[in-house]
Amino acid sequence: MPNWAYTLYKVRGSESEVAALHKTIQNLDQREESLLPNGFGKLWLGNLVHALGGDWEKTYCRGHILDYSLENGILKINTETAWGEMSDVRHFIEQKYPSLQIFFQTEECGMCIFQTNDATGEYFPERWLLDYNDEKKNVFIWEYFTDLPAVIQYLKDNGVIEKDIQPTKEAIVAVLSEIEEERPDDISWMLEEFVVVDD
Asked: Which range of residues forms the domain containing residue 95?
């Protein structure tokens, strides 16, 4: 059983090519049955590769589209895939439609993979993910932040920490670890940085 990665893509490019990709996904979604046999359903990424004229057996595509939308010329696609972001599928689409640029943000908690290819932050400005749970106080946080001062302010606003601390990952980790040590049965947390990758 794989660890599942959740990836949000934002696709920009010429209006006609964005619309063509969107229409292909819509057509797959509106079918009564899957285009090809698979274990993921109509929106399996292999169906998308096949519908675009590619060979799904030569393109790693283990996963499916959860949802999609076209807003203001930007196509958003959410996927659930095995182990990580499906770069093979992304590269195939970019070859099929040369005007398209596909930006992504991916999370795979099992292996602590948190990545984006949006170096400027135009589409994915968030660089930090905080997951904090306090069972006793009924505090459950899953939030994205652009920087560490925003993380600290959020923790203060929600009563998790009271004192001022340095805006560094090490300082935040130290404070949250101290809280967890005091009540290990109640507290769990994770602070992860989205690494910018260039591929």
From this structure: 4-116
